[in-house]
Amino acid sequence: MAAEAGQPAPKSEAPAEKKDQGDQKKGAKDQSKAPAAVVAASEGGEKKLSNAELKKKAKEEKAARRAAAKVTQPQPPASAPGQGDSAKGGKSKPKQDGPQAGAQHGKTPAPRSAAPMTAAAPKEAKPSVPECFSHLAMAKGVNLTHADKDVHPAVLLLGQQMSTMAISDSTTRLEATLLAFKKLLSLEHTSNKRLQNQVIDSYTTPHGTTLSRHFTSHVLNPQIVYLTACRPMCFSMGNAIRWLKLQISKIDIDMADSDAKKLLCEAIDSFIHERITLADLVIVNTAADMIAQDDVILTYAHHHLVERALLKAKASGKRFKVILVDDPFERVGLDHVKKLAAAGIPVAYSPDFGALRTNLQESTTVLVAAEAMFSNGAMYARAGTCDVATAAFDLGMRVTSLCETINFTERVSIDSLTYNEIDPERNTDEEFRLLFDTTRDKSISAVVTELGICSAKSVPAILRKLEEL
Amino acid sequence: MPSVSTGHALDLEKFLKSLKGQPLEASVNSLISLLKRRQIKGSEPCAVATAHILLQVVARSKWHDVDSLLINVSRTGRKLVDAQPNELVIGNIVRRVLGLIRDEASEDRGDTADESASDAPTPTDIVPPASISQQWSSKRFDSANSVAPPPRPPIVSSYSSINPPKSLFHLLSTSPPADGDVSPFRNSGSSTPTWRGNSGQIHALRSEVIDGIEEIKDEISQVDDQIAASAEVQIHPGDLVLVHQPSTTVERFILRAAQKRKFTVLIAMAPPRRHSAETTQHTTFRKKLSAAGITVVNVMNGGLMAYMSRVNKVIIGARAIVATGGVVADAGSAAIARAAKEQGAAVVVLSGVYKLSPESPFDESSLIEWGDSSTFVSFADGPLVCGAEIRTALTELIPPELVDTYITNLGTHSRDHLSSLISDHYKREDADFHIWEGALP
């Protein structure tokens, strides 16, 4: 922190002075810029500004930026380089404002702070989301140069991976996020430090405050805002971050910094272990047990839980067939088919929803995995799952959904357009694609979780149980 | 149909041009191979081609009475149906033409009843007028003794009661009004001797049947316009209309509505195939709609349940409609219709009456046409080719209970009304022409 604080200060001062020179004739209106420059210069050192102060500062900076823009227009070449830096510093400021607001209002993934979006707006003005779906969230991605300087490099990388859908499914995203947050806390100084002059490698609590009061608002929140800006958080990330914040707030004020950090790291490790690793294992085993000899299992696209369950069942010596219906516009099923075929499972591959009913009539059970479960029993999963589940239900087949309880949310969704995401690559009139859909509880026979097999209707009961744990 | 790219249209045109220069047999054979190779595909091109070839059969094949004409037509029809059994329209057109011949023959017979009486038939030619099928089977029996007669269609039994002795029959046949119910069977059957040697009559019949086939051709060409006429009634301002891989019929329908109404169109796109620039899909349609101020969104989802809570109407172009009301349409539309039902969106099927088939499938999977598996999976992909069975459906059947309305060139119909449309357009005795003709060489 300290090293970093010194650096931006002179930079932001220089353009401010230039501005002053250029603006002298403009008179009283521009007076606000001088204090702004001063505050900007001192920002690194004074982290403990109150909310109101931050807001005020942000406003002043905005004014200064506008004035600067006016000035640079007539004489661009002279002040351009300095200008860019000052604008960047200015942009990052309101972003820091965002997390506090977000943290106070709740941990929802939906309310993304407005600042990063407006920052990205001029660049992304061209593609227009069709009006009737404009309420839905979309992974916008954040240019690395626009990212808040407080964001940890590991989180920066993760954000890019998420926005490009390199890491896309709910549980994987959750695990990656928690591991990245762990790096925030990690005690070791990595070798990266020498390579990068601006490394927020590990966190040390500033003097005069404690980890439990400082870490969440000043370190964690900028990361969350950045990640949310890259791609809207999934429900499991919301759940886990709420849990993490609770853990942080529970830390004793008097505890030593290193102990507190160690405690948090251990907590994160055990959380990942219990809620993801072991949970997956239990679900896979349960699902594999549910597969009977000579079953014909129809599954949709690809999910690692389904894949593991099928391979596990095969490994345990069961003889069964798989019909895989793929997502026609994102052929994630092809690799899945190859893996299954390599394991010796007879597979039929249908590249789209053609003859879905015929395929279903041939099969005995439908196995899908959920991205999340709503508390009304609705299943949030890859777009198309609902079509498969409904058609299967029509034919009186068993529809089994696999889902870790970390993906359960207390929210309620009755149609697919309440919560959804638009494919960031296909978000215009010409190409439009939703990533998820919502299957109502009536077409789901069973939900396999790490706590056992339950009906979709009992999701709220499980949520209650989880609160008690 | 969306599948009718320009290449296939060319094949149809080429075929139609070739009709004049070729002998009849060669034309029939070339059409059969075009159908088998799917070079003519889609219901409209198939219907047009069938109508043309049947016109040739009527105009150029050798026939000296109504029955031999019926045999010629149904024999050719049978070959065409065999070549592409999934295109129900081929059978429909053949049935329409058969019905047309029967109608014309019975009309003419009514006019010329007196002449027929004077024209005494030779005993060998006289066949019990029980049914055409019986008559035909006996003829075939003569020609190929080794082959057993095919089973009679069940409907025949109802007529077997009126199987009078020959002499009595001829007494009766001289006075048609005495018959009470003038069934086409009786007329065509008893008309066998009527036409014998009467070249003028044959000529008249020929030209009348040809006129009738021309009318069928006109009907096919006007279907899109007539269906589009009811667009304004069906599409309301502000609607969100979903169309699945719109055929020209659907495009015309939407465009007509766009002249008067402001609404939003979602186009469910066909999945991208391996070797094609799919970016050109429906672009002209989009342009025309945008010019009319309609918002068009191309939807790239396979399952469309996610959109259905907003969608008001789903419009599907049929490839064929079976007697139960089930709709043969492009693969994927059954899932869409099911999704629409789930959310209460109306499913509207657009189809010319010529696509309405009196056949009903024994099993819905029999109407699925399976396509080329290499459209989505490369043959170079070893593990996949060896390890997996690839199923690429091109068409599928939408169950009748998922369809709300049928719009044809005759208007808007409910499912219950389809049976009366079928009985208006096809003769009962032609319903199974390709089955009872099955054993013919």
UniProtKB/TrEMBL annotation, chain A:
Keyword Protein biosynthesis: yes
UniProt keyword list: Cytoplasm, Initiation factor, Protein biosynthesis
Record-linked InterPro entries: IF-2B-related (IPR000649), IF_2B-like_C (IPR042529), NagB/RpiA_transferase-like (IPR037171)
Compartment list: Cytoplasm, Cytosol
Compositionally skewed regions (Low complexity) per UniProt: 109-122
CC terms in the record's Gene Ontology section: cytosol
GO MF, one annotated term: translation initiation factor activity
Family to which the UniProt record says this protein belongs: Belongs to the eIF-2B alpha/beta/delta subunits family.
Cited PANTHER family: TRANSLATION INITIATION FACTOR EIF-2B, TRANSLATION INITIATION FACTOR EIF-2B SUBUNIT DELTA
Official protein name in the record: Translation initiation factor eIF2B subunit delta
Species in which this protein is naturally found: Trichoderma lentiforme
From TrEMBL, chain B:
One Pfam family cited in the UniProt record for this chain: IF-2B
Subcellular location field: Cytoplasm, Cytosol
Chain spans, region Disordered: 105-159, 179-199
Main location: cytoplasm
UniProt key word Cytoplasm: yes
InterPro entries attached to this UniProt entry: eIF2B_beta_subunit, IF-2B-related, IF_2B-like_C, NagB/RpiA_transferase-like
Ranges of Polar residues composition bias in the record: 131-146, 185-199
Keyword Transferase (UniProt): no
Molecular functions (GO terms): guanyl-nucleotide exchange factor activity; translation initiation factor activity
Keywords: Cytoplasm, Initiation factor, Protein biosynthesis
Gene3D superfamilies with a match to the protein in the record: Translation initiation factor eif-2b, domain 2 (3.40.50.10470)
Any one Gene Ontology cellular component term annotated for this protein: eukaryotic translation initiation factor 2B complex
Family: Belongs to the eIF-2B alpha/beta/delta subunits family.
Self-association state and partner proteins as the record states: Component of the translation initiation factor 2B (eIF2B) complex which is a heterodecamer of two sets of five different subunits: alpha, beta, gamma, delta and epsilon. Subunits alpha, beta and delta comprise a regulatory subcomplex and subunits epsilon and gamma comprise a catalytic subcomplex. Within the complex, the hexameric regulatory complex resides at the center, with the two heterodimeric catalytic subcomplexes bound on opposite sides.
UniProt name for this protein: Translation initiation factor eIF2B subunit beta
Organism name: Trichoderma lentiforme
